[in-house]
């Protein structure tokens, strides 16, 4: 039987929530400050996955203007009941403060790839909300609760409250059903019911190297919950050399043939560097139930495996995706996202000049409000990305080009601008290292007579190099070899939960909306690369 290779969702796809509807499997993952919110992937064999939807695609569902880096959409929970899909999510407004603003919402849809409803507000007591549909027809919300009081556990336990479909609100008493284990930082709850037990799965130990999956059970949904004597069920915390680190924040699914699988987040560091430009990804493990009704890894032990047995299901392949986008359709490619705001006519267009992506200069790259930027995830350690841009800036406050970024404080930007002191239109590199700005290229390149300019970046693990060309064939390097590992979890000062992106952007700090036209965007992975 063919294996499943982990991770199944590569590059910044954390906090997976999985469901099965008939023969179809869906995974929802977090998107944080990137818009539209929530990624949903589809599979029929648990081996091959395809991105099919971003359900939070309008500001009536998700308004993230001003959100911090790594704020926004945390840990969505996807479920299905009675012909209706339910999606629960948090919009995190504040992060590194004792008292957090974590607003929880519910949207629904009968078509997972169609339009979703406007949100129903649930609560703001904590994050990682999850909806459980009991077999008696009642629905229950669980979420972790934050506690900012002096001397208290910041992760104050798992709250349970009933949700009323009729009144579209939470009703009845609030129960604190689980205070966690000695690992601490108890979050990421999901409820299940099997053989008369309610099972509570949680993420503990923090979402970094101490991460783990723990379980507890009870014969009553309100508890008390008995802790699994073999906890944690899954972790890589005891082996810093293991290829899948940060294992935790899990969810369960049963196949139509009775097999059980657990999806969970993980991270793959650049070897010997301990940095994670791909962010937190999604992996899957095969599970088995013990005679005394606890869940264990089919492989034995607690460590996540790089390969696991696939279920006994027919192979289901998705059409292959192209590496080049020529902007020939009126909508952005599904892999593109924007920062905090939707892609509207205010920031760009695919129809004003057919065959081109037109970006209209907005705020600076340091802005948490209205940037004109579209980008896609880095999903391999080695890749090449290129574009061709037509841009006629009028002064130094207008810029456009190719960008590699983690957040508004960490990026490398190969840009075109204009400065009469530099001979007119020119090309340079601008970098930001935890809000410390620099120009790594010793010499800028004059391109005053160029109508079109081709830009390219090559990334190989921690090494990044920019190039330019007048024709897309004869490439010249610009600037030094750069440290790509800075665009990584654990390095960035504010953003810590996303991953590196590569894309296109345009700024006009005059406020006049000067536009740049991009002819294409290409992203080509080279997994054969090796760290140097």
The helical percent reads under 10%
Taking all Cα atoms into account, the compactness measure Rg is: 24 Å
Number of distinct beta strands: 40
> What overall form do the CA principal axes indicate?
globular
- Biggest sheet character: 9 strands, antiparallel
Q: What kind of oligomer do you see? A: single chain
* End-to-end C-alpha gap: 35 Å
Mean pLDDT: 96
> What is the beta-strand fraction?
over 45%
Would you kindly provide a written description of the structure presented here, covering whatever features stand out?
The protein has 532 residues and is mostly beta strands. Helices cover 0% and strands 47% of the residues. The chain has no helices and 40 strands. The chain has strands at 3-5, 17-21, 24-29, 34-35, 39-43, 50-53, 72-81, 84-92, 102-109, 120-123, 130-133, 139-146, 155-164, 169-178, 187-194, 197-204, 212-218, 226-227, 234-235, 245-254, 260-267, 280-289, 295-297, 307-309, 324-325, 337-339, 348-349, 357-360, 372-377, 382-390, 398-407, 410-419, 424-433, 436-438, 445-446, 453-460, 463-469, 476-483, 501-508, 515-525. The strands form eight sheets. Strands 4, 26, 29, 31, 32, 33, 34, 35 and 39 form a nine-stranded antiparallel sheet that branches. The protein is globular, with a radius of gyration of 24 Å. The chain starts with a strand and ends in a 7-residue tail after the last strand. The model has no long low-confidence stretch (mean pLDDT 96).
């Amino acid at each position: 039987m063919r294996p499943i290779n982990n991770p199944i969702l590569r590059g910044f796809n954390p906090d997976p929530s999985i469901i099965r509807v008939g023969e179809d499997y869906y995974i929802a993952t977090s998107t944080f400050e990137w818009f539209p919110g929530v990624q949903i992937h589809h599979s029929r064999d648990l081996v091959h996955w395809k991105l099919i939807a971003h359900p939070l695609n309008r500001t009536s569902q998700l308004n993230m203007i001003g959100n911090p880096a790594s704020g926004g959409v945390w840990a969505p929970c996807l479920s299905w009941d009675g012909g209706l899909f339910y999606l629960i999510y948090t919009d995190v407004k504040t992060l590194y403060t004792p008292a957090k603003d974590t607003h929880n919402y519910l949207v629904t849809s009968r078509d997972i790839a169609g339009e979703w409803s406007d949100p129903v507000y649930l609560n703001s007591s904590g994050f990682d909300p999850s909806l459980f549909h009991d077999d008696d027809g009642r629905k229950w919300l669980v979420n972790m609760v934050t506690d900012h009081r002096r001397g208290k556990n910041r992760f104050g336990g798992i709250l349970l409250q009933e949700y009323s479909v009729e009144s579209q609100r939470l009703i009845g008493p609030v129960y604190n059903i689980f205070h966690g284990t000695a690992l601490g930082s108890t979050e990421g709850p999901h409820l299940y019911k099997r053989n008369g037990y309610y099972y509570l799965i949680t993420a503990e130990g923090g979402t970094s190297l101490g991460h783990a999956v723990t379980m507890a059970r009870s014969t009553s949904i309100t508890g008390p919950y008995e802790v699994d004597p073999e906890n944690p069920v899954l972790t890589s915390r005891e082996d810093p050399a293991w290829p899948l680190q940060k294992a935790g924040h899990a969810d369960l699914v049963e196949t139509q043939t009775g097999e059980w699988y657990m999806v969970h987040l993980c991270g793959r560091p650049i070897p010997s560097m301990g940095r994670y430009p791909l962010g937190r990804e999604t992996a899957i493990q095969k599970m088995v139930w013990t005679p005394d009704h606890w869940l264990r890894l089919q492989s034995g032990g607690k460590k996540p495996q790089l390969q696991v047995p696939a279920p006994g299901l027919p192979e289901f392949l998705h059409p292959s995706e192209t590496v080049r986008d020529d902007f020939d359709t009126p909508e952005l490619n599904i892999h593109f996202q924007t920062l905090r705001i939707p892609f509207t006519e205010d920031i760009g267009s695919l129809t004003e000049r057919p065959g081109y992506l037109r970006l209209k200069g907005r705020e600076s790259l340091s802005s948490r409000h209205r940037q004109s930027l579209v980008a896609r995830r880095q999903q391999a350690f080695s890749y090449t990305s290129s574009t061709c841009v037509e841009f006629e800036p009028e002064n130094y406050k207008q810029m456009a080009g190719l960008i590699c970024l983690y957040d508004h404080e960490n990026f490398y930007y190969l840009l075109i601008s204009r400065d009469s002191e530099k001979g007119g239109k020119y090309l340079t590199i601008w970098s930001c290292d935890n809000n410390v700005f620099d120009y790594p290229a010793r010499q800028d390149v004059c391109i005053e007579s160029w109508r079109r300019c081709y830009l390219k970046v090559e990334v190989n693990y921690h090494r990044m190099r920019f190039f330019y060309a007048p024709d897309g064939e004869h490439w010249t390097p610009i600037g030094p070899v750069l440290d790509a590992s800075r665009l990584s979890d654990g390095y960035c000062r504010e953003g810590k939960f996303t991953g590196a992106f590569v894309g296109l952007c345009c700024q006009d700090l005059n406020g006049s909306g000067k536009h740049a036209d991009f002819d294409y965007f290409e992203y080509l992975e080279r997994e054969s690369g090796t760290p140097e």
